[in-house]
Amino acid sequence: MREEARGTGGDLGEIGTSVKKAVTGSLKGINEIETEIFSLVRDTVSSTLKASGSLATEALTVSRDVVRGTIQATEEVGTGLILSTKSVAKGIVMGVGDVGGDVFAVAGQTVKGAVKGASEVGADVAMVARRAVDGVVEATQEVGGNVEEMAAAAVGGAIEAAGTISKTALKAVTEMLVGVVEGVKEIAGAALPKVGHDEPAAARKKK
Questions:
Q1: Among 92, 101, 49, 46, which residue's Cα sits nearest to residue 67?
Q2: Is 80 exposed, middle or buried (CB count within 10 Å of its CB: 0-12, 13-18, 19+)?
Q3: pTM
Q4: Within a domain: 77
Q5: H helices of 78-166, where?
Q6: I want to staple 135 with a disulfide (CB 3.0 to 4.6 A). Which of 48, 50, 56, 86 is the partner?
Q7: Is the per-residue pLDDT at 78 higher than 70?
Q8: Does any domain span residue 207?
Q9: What is the average pLDDT across 143-171?
Q10: How many domains are contained in the chain?
């Protein structure tokens, strides 16, 4: 037994190299997977809405169902929710945008659904919120939309959903998203009023 253990220890260099190659291959594959998820979601959302006569109500319903479907799929597989969230959110926004739907309303709804779903399956709520908001922002940038307004809607949806889960979830999501919108001063003030941005102003008014 000891000789086998010693032999295994001597092969660690080779094993380490093997693992490195496998991980590198997996990481390269992640981009391909995300691209596939994005394309699938975008095509599904746009084609579904094209077949519908009511974009206003259907867009929200479709976005909710897509998020639920993704969460159920990742739950069955056992992993991947955080990885897929960005691609799903981006696909929903761009799919709705393809048919002229209300992307602003869908942004908040999508992130809200992702956060609630993450909580239900025990995933990292703050990271899922971050990935979902990133997806919304990236989609908005690609279509030339108002990034500030869309980010505010997405962040608002995340915080609203987190608030219904627990104080811990609300704190984690808020702190995570302050970092996301840090470079956009307007969003930090409008979408995150309880993070401390308004307190100095209020104090100044009293003086």
A1: 92
A2: middle
A3: 0.74
A4: yes
A5: 81-98, 103-120, 125-143, 147-165
A6: 86
A7: no
A8: no
A9: 89
A10: 1
Using only C-alpha atoms, the chain has a radius of gyration, in whole angstroms, of: 21
Amino acid at 104: F
**What's the pLDDT score for residue 90?**
93
**Structural domain contains residue 204:** no
C-beta separation of 113 from 149 below 8 A: no
Q: Is the model's pLDDT at 1 over the cut of 50?
A: no
Checking if the pLDDT of 195 tops 50, the result is no
Distance CA 108, CA 47 (A): 21
Q: How far apart are CA 139 and CA 165, in angstroms?
A: 27
Q: Which long-range contacts (C-beta less than 8 Å, at least 24 apart) are formed by 195-203? A: none
Residues in the chain: 207
On the question of pLDDT at 24 being above 60, the answer is yes
Instruction: Decide if pLDDT at 172 tops 80.
Output: yes
Rounded mean pLDDT of 27-32?
71
Judging by beta carbons within 10 Å of its beta carbon (0-12, 13-18, 19+), is residue 130 exposed, middle or buried?
Answer: buried
- Tell me the residue range of the domain where 104 lies: 2-197
Residue 144 burial (CB count, 10 A)? 7
